[in-house]
Write a structure and sequence with these properties.
heterodimer, A: MetI-like fold, 14 helices, globular, B: alpha+beta, Rossmann fold, OB fold (Dihydrolipoamide Acetyltransferase, E2P), six-stranded mixed sheet, 40% strand
Amino acid sequence: MTKTKPKLHFSRKLLAIPYALFLAVFVVVPLLIVVYYAFTSDDGKFTFEYVRVFFDKNGNGLKGFLTSYNFKTIMRSLFISFMSTIVCLLIAYPVAYIIANCKLKNKSTLLLLFIVPMWVNFVLRINALKELFVWLGTYNKSDAWNIVNTIIGMVYDFLPFMILPIYTTIIKIDKSYLEAAKDLGATPAKAFVKVTLPLSKAGIVSGISMVFLPSMTNYVVSNYLSFRNVKIIGKLIDDYFTGDLWHDGSFISLILLLFMFLVTWLTGGFDEDEQTNTRGASLW
Amino acid sequence: MAITTAKNNLDNNTKIIELVDVCKEFDGVSVVENMSFYVRKGEFITFLGPSGCGKTTTLRMIAGFEMPTSGKILLNGKDISHLPPNLRPVNTVFQKYALFPHLNVFENVAFGLKQKRVETTYVDKKGNSKIKKEKIPKAVIAEKVKKALEIVDLSGFEKRSISTLSGGQQQRIAIARAIVNEPEILLLDEPLGALDLKMRKEMQLELKAMHKRLGITFIYVTHDQEEALTMSDTIVVMADGSIQQIGTPEMIYNEPKNTFVADFIGESNIFTGVMPKDGQVRFCGKSFECLDGGFEKDEPVDIVVRPEDVEIKPVDEGMLKGKVTSVIFKGIHYQILVQCGRYEIEIQSTSAPNVGDTVGLIIKPDGIHVMKKKFRVNKFTGVITKRNTVEFGDGEFECDVTQLYPNSHLDEEGYLVTAKGEKLDLTDTEVNVEVGLHDITMSDNLDEGGARGNIISLIYKSEYYRYIVRTENEEDYVLACEDLWNENDLVSLIIPKDKIRLSLKVAEGGKQ
């Protein structure tokens, strides 16, 4: 006897449900909570009080804001992020390029050399780095050295995140493009500038967003390597929340969010076009 | 017709490019062997051969992407063998187009012109004449790009991005990108391979017309024999890294030099036979008149007969009789198979007999092409066993595996140790085996040799007899022996250890 089972109609759309749920619970709801705290007072009423406190705490207008502790911290944070990203890029691109183009059979082993450090707990690694600075005598030597040490720490920590996407894009570039460029009269240097570099842009952009944004908030690095003398935006938020000033902290979090959007927009992350969409390269 | 008009393009016999004894090896494996030929200015020459025959490698050496291991490449008489590609007046249309995805159509086509520097002499303030390298002005570039796009019939496509173009359009842009630089030679590496049949036919004619109009030398690579016959002034047929035949399409089709060429170009019936005397050839159990000669008496030869050279006649008028086993309509003709005893003969004809009919066949003398039988060594593919012996040709033989790696030796456990000290287990390694004609001996003692079989053929060759021994599983050994054995004798075959030449089998398709 054959029984006809009702056929299970499993549309592919259903596969998106877990992701949508995850997105709602862990991204959208927390964000809304942050926005709620940023614009309400303790008794739950809507207020712009914390916006005012942030921009104009003492009533001195723009001048007051530009000399304020918060503004300086944000600027310092931006500077450290910017420098870390640049240094990472300058180291990562040649490394990724050389590994991708070397004739060794086992490129992944070579790549692993740069990834293995990530397997050691990063607090431990940063502590080790601190000991190294102490030994070198640069630890907490001056304000400038504190900033330099923090940048070195950030670079050390985030370098693999820059190498991997760049490596992925370079290795995917069809060698025939380079041959075509040389065939059309380009010198090897010209071929690199005109073909390899633009075609690896996606990896560079992806690497930048993976280094720039985290290094604004990773205050473990700055705390350990500067004897708590270098304060970045991540630490600022932490201070507000540990000091029970949730509303102020929430508003600064929104400022940070603004920077994230800005960087994503500047690097073309919102482009619809498949070719220029950079997020694809981060799928390593 | 097409050939005679195209010939007008040829600038007498000026050699624009010449290859002299060019060899190319990849990791010790020879891909191109002693290649020598020249290309005349304005010619449309095609390298034709199956994949892995070295045609693309040859093209890449002319383009400058590969350097020859030995030999010379001369361009207008000057040695350019080791010149990098950017300094050669040669442009390539790549198999998969290789259009830059980050640039639009205009930028792709203009790429080469933007790299170019024009040398101009000028007189400076002090009155010295100096040479200045200048970029090509933008307006000139724009004009040239426009013209190139007109030639490939894609005017107005300048602003389009590459990803929005169809395969055929990308193909045309790739051609425009190459010809805009006015190269002396245009190299085309299977450029129509990715197009559908109809588009391919169209592009073949267009390329041919373009060649005529531009007067540039075209070097074309393809594995499609029809494409080669349609387009070329000259065809270079290649196999296993060496040239099989060079000639006009007619010559190659009508007078193939060996069975490989005959088999590769067009359909053909290939027989083995003997030549009792000049002008007479024996195959399929009958004697035929032919136009060839110059062979030894009773020399074994290969005979090629094109399907369209076999005529169907009433039974009593034919030289061969057979039964029609299949008739297939092919558009302009019928493809007919006739079984004549052991032989199946393919015929092309515009009229068709019925399946099952008994028909007579005649082959006119000019339809019979006799060629020297190519046989130098026995070639087998074999496998190394656990005991470092080799299995091939239905038998197992002792061999010297150390010849697979230079300077290697065997350790006590039987592992091969290479010159670098690496330990290799060769079990199940596939190898090519070669054994010379004179290196095999036969014995009555069936357990003495590594394989056994029956003698199926013996031919007296004045100094020795040539035997063919066939094993149970139809592997043939060809060997020479001074003693006389009888046909059908069961013998065992002995090959000395040092006469078995082994080489590693290289995976095909990696490099062409």
